[in-house]
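Notebook entry, structure prediction.
Reason for the run: the old model in the group folder had no record of what sequence produced it. Starting over properly, with the input documented here first.
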Amino acid sequence: MKPNDTVRKQLRMKPSGARRTGVWNTYRTYSIRLCQKYAIFACAACVLATCLVSCTTDRVSETDAITVEGMVAVRGNEPFAAYVLETSDRNTYVLVFPEAVETPARLQVTGRLYLGEWMGQSYAHIEVHSHEELAE
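New structure, fully documented this time:
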């Protein structure tokens, strides 16, 4: 008798329930692995969604009005030029004026502070409500 014939004979002799157990274990293992993959995917999706939602909160309240003073100059090239105020502490703010302002000038600016983008980077912006020129 060949070895393959012996294996075939042993398989025929096993009760029918024992033969199905191997198939059942195969399906069970497959479904457990599939559930693990979906669980990992679901966790990653939840983390990503949480990060996206929490990072997009750039809303500001009315209490974000500040007053700063410093040197105002125009920086950048047209059409991307912007008024930029630099304080004595070396803080930089991009200013959004309702009208044009003569620069360079030393100004005290009051306005609403918010986070915005300029030249591909995040900068603190001030929406100017009022400004006054300071004596040097």
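Summary: The mean pLDDT is 76.
The old model has been moved to the deprecated folder.
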